[in-house]
Design a protein that fits this description.
The chain has 13 helices and 14 strands. It is α+β, with helices and mostly antiparallel strands and about 300 residues long. The strands form six sheets. Strands 5-4-14 form a three-stranded antiparallel β-sheet, with no helix packed on it. Strands 7-11-12 form a three-stranded antiparallel β-sheet, with no helix packed on it. Strands 1-8 form a two-stranded antiparallel ribbon. The longest helix is centred in the N-terminal third of the chain and has 15 residues. The chain starts with a helix and ends with a strand.
Length: about 300
Amino acid sequence: MDASAVKEDRTIRACSIWRALDVVGDVPVLLIMEQAFLGTHGFDEFVARTGLARSVVSGRLRKLVDEDCLAKRPKKEGRGSYYALTEKGRDQFPNALMMLRWQHRWEAASRDFRVRLRHSACGAETEPTPICAHCRKEIDPRDVDWREGPGLAQVVPHYERRRFNGAVTARRPGGRPLVDTMIELFGDRWSTLVVRAMFTRINRFDDIQRDTLMATNILTGRLERLIRQGILRTIPYSAHADRVEYRLTEKGRDLYPVLLALLQWGDRWFSDERGPPLILTHKPCGHDLRMIVACNHCDGEIGIHNLTFEIE
């Protein structure tokens, strides 16, 4: 085998989801960003509301400042500093809304609270809906084609051996995080890459392993977890009982808007002059797909600037 073949075997697709996960594919980062969207600004507040160790909060805040998702600013009165969302940080809000939408749809019965959103433009209580910016139709992943874009690259993955392994036990007043299941899933890069593989029609164990370069035991564990969570199911493809393909359930397909929000965030902030790594086409209208988050009452776009919330 020549050197080029060896190099190819050790690389994976560096699409914008991969690049976004370099920043937000981490449980403490997602917990801190959730709190930032809820209006938390001070270091001690982040510690109290996330339940994370002070050293973990300090390190992740530093990372988010370095990545220009948060800005550290001096207080106008008194000593000390506070953290404010930057434009890049606020641009993650559609991802947060799509996570909240998924948990409302699939896990509402298991929670002792509900987040109620109100669209200030129309005054109605709203559920965020992912729609095509061109035809205004709600996005179904089965209606989306994709092709390689000019910015697609192969990279050698550098998985950290010891990422944050704790369960999501962070605190909000009176309970747990608003999107705990989503934070656990998308805070684990390996699980996210398995789900990404499903949406790009990579369904068999060996093919997923080649796409992600995960160790066999890690991939086996992630697949088993996703099956237990009802996100994946198996179907046999030969007479041998152990020859199965992994397919998304309806619950799993409904993760697509979260991945799409990650993709668009990565396209905006990490694509180079060559363009995006992947180009998506919305088949019902034939246009390149751009997702916007709309109010299910008035169909107007919703975002951090025109949305209020209350927790019941």
